[in-house]
Amino acid sequence: MAIKLKPLLLMSALLLFSIQSHADNLNVAVASNFASSLHSLAEDFESKTGHRLRISSASTGKLYTQINHGAPFDVFLAADEHRPELLIAEGKASAEFSLTYAMGRLVFISNIPTEKNCIDVLDSPALKRLAIANPQTAPYGLATQQTLEKLQRWQSTKAKLVMGENIAQTLQFVATGNASAGFVAQSMLHQGIKINTACEWPVPADMHEAIKQKMLVLAGASNKPAAIAFWQYMQSDDARTIIKNSGYDVP
Questions:
Q1: What angle do CA 19, 23, 24 make, to 5 degrees?
Q2: Distance from C-alpha of 111 to C-alpha of 182, rounded to nearest angstrom
Q3: Which residues pair with 164 in a beta bridge?
Q4: Which of 101, 93, 83 has its CA nearest to residue 38?
Q5: Nearest by Cα to 102 from 208, 234, 237
Q6: How many C-beta neighbours within 10 Å does residue 159 have?
Q7: Which residues have a Cβ under 8 Å from the Cβ of 64 and sit 6 or more positions away?
Q8: Which residue of 54, 127, 151, 210 shows the fewest CB atoms closer than 10 Å?
Q9: Which domains, from first to last, does the chain contain?
Q10: How far lies 83's CA from each of 64, 98, 192, in Å?
C-alpha cells in the first residue's frame, strides 16, 4: 500500500507546485456592498488556486467611471447589471465572461422606537436624517429611491436625506447615529457590525427593480488564466454557498 501511495503523493506535490508556480495577481473592482463577501471568497479561491486578489471597493458608478478612464482592473463585480452591460456594449468586456453572481436585498433599519410598523418611522417627527446611498452611483440607492416613490415618500423625505457615496458609507451613517434610519443592503447586516437598531423592515422585492449583481472579466484580462479561473470559481458550489451565507440570493 505504501508503495502505491508514493506516486500519488508525488503527483499531488507536483500539481501543487505547478499551481503555485503559475499563480498570478488579479486586480478586482467590487461594489461596496459585496466587499466583505469578496474577502471571504478570496480566501477560499486563493487556497484552491494560489492566485491572489487585490481588491478595490467603491460604488458601482464610481468603479465604472474608473474603468472607463483606464483603471487597470481585471475583474469587475458590480451591484447592478446596467454598468456591466454598458462595458460590454463599449467593447471593454465580453458577454462570454459575464455572470449574474448574486441578487441583492434591501432593508430599512431605524434606531427610533415605534409601536407601529418599522416603515412608519418615515412619517415620524423624530426622524431628522434618513440615510440612503446616492441613486446616481449606487444601485442600492436607486432601489431605495424606487421604494420611496412607490411608498409615496420620496418628496416628503427629500429634505431629510443624507446620501452616502456608497452603501457602506450609508450603513456607517446609521451605525454612528449621524442618521436615525436608513436603507442598506441586507447582506451588510451579516458582517458583524454592531448597530443599535430599534426595528428593521425587509423591503419586499416588488418595491423596486431587481438588484441583479453582475461580474465581468474585463477585455484586458480575457486571456489571463487567473481571471478565467476566478470567473469559473464564482459559479462553483463553494462560492455559491459563501454568497448565500453572506445574505444574498443566488440565481
A1: 155
A2: 9
A3: 133
A4: 101
A5: 234
A6: 9
A7: 76, 78, 83, 86, 87
A8: 54
A9: 19-104+210-245 (3.40.190.10), 106-202 (3.40.190.10)
A10: 7, 12, 29
Residues 101, 240: Cα–Cα separation, whole Å: 8
Rg (CA), the chain: 21
For residue 27, the surrounding DSSP H or E stretch is: strand 25-31
DSSP tag of 179 = S
Give backbone dihedrals phi and psi of 169, rounded to 5 degrees, phi first.
-70, -35
Q: What is the DSSP string of 84-111?
A: HHHHHHTTSEEEEEEEEEEEE-EEEEES
The one-digit pLDDT tens for each residue of the chain (251 residues) are: 333 444 444 344 434 433 444 679 999 999 999 999 999 999 999 999 999 999 999 999 999 999 999 999 999 999 999 999 999 999 999 999 999 999 999 999 999 999 889 999 999 999 999 999 999 999 999 999 999 999 999 999 999 999 999 988 999 999 999 999 999 999 988 776 677 789 999 999 999 999 999 999 999 999 999 999 999 999 999 999 999 999 999 98
Q: Distances in Å between the alpha carbon of 145 and those of 23, 63, 141?
A: 43, 21, 6
At residue 98, what is the residue type?
Answer: S
